Amino acid sequence: MNDLDIAAEIATLTATFNDIRSVVGVERLTAQIADLSEQAGVPDLWDDTDKAQKITSALSHAQSELARIVAVERRLDDLEVLVQMAIEGDDQESADEARAELASLQKVIGDLEVQTLLDGEYDERGAVVTIRSGAGGDDATDFAEMLMRMYLRYAERHKYPVKVLDTSFAEGAGIKSATFEVDAPYAFGTLSVEAGTHRLARISPFGSADKRQTSFAAVEVIPIMEEATAVEVPEGDIRVDVFRSSGPGGQSVNTTDSAVRITHIPTGIVVSMQNEKSQIQNRAVAMRVLQTRLMLLQREEEAAKKKELAGTITASWGDQMRSYFLYGQQLVKDLRTGHEVGNPAIVFDGDLDGFINAGIKWRKRAIED
Question: Does the pLDDT of residue 161 top 70, yes or no?
Answer without folding.
Answer: yes
